[in-house]
């Protein structure tokens, strides 16, 4: 198992892992959106590779104050084999190295079963209301 940075050539494979893992995608996840994302902090967008096949991915970001986790996904055939833990630990190390002190993430209401996974990695829940607005 190897953890490495995402490159644009990985896009189709990573999009397939998102789909297989049930990740909700948006217009921001189009190839154009991902080109934009990679232009900002490519060292925080990671893939897990096994025998040259991408089996997991996470899109991290750092806003200068907090680290954020997006689209953590492990292919269903590889779930429960510590791929999620490995890729998250690598991302945490990278965030720490650039001065990040706290990492945030959001879980959709229909996916609360993953809370245990994040608790296992040391994350706590907080009672907050998430608000959003698409700007055009
Ligand atoms: C959530 C997900 C990324 C976890 O990845 P994974 O590779 O299956 O998890 P791991 O095998 O690395 O698990 C790491 C640890 O958490 C534990 N764990 C995993 N899922 C758990 C759960 N639901 N509740 C409690 N503990 C859990 C494991 O037992 C393991 O413990 P250990 O390292 O102490 O032995 C993966 O299941 C997935 O892709 N799910 C679908 C997409 C998704 O929901 N992504 C998150 C969006 S917020």
UniProtKB/TrEMBL annotation:
Keywords on record: Acyltransferase, Transferase
A molecular function (GO) term: acyltransferase activity, transferring groups other than amino-acyl groups
Keyword Transferase belongs to the record: yes
Domain N-acetyltransferase: 1-136
Entry protein name: Acetyltransferase
The species this protein was found in: Peribacillus loiseleuriae
């Amino acid at each position: 198992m190897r953890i490495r940075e995402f490159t644009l050539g990985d896009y189709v494979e990573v999009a397939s892992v998102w789909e297989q893992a049930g990740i909700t995608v948006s217009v921001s996840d189009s190839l154009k959106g991902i080109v934009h994302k990679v232009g900002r902090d490519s060292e925080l967008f990671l893939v897990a590779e096994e025998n040259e096949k991408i089996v997991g991915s996470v899109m991290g970001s750092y806003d200068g104050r907090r680290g954020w986790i997006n689209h953590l996904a492990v292919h269903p055939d590889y779930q429960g084999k510590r791929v999620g833990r490995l890729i998250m630990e690598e991302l945490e190390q990278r965030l720490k190295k650039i001065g990040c002190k706290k990492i945030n993430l959001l879980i959709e209401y229909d996916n609360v079963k993953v809370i245990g996974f994040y608790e296992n990695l040391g994350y706590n829940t907080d009672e907050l209301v998430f608000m959003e607005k698409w700007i055009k």
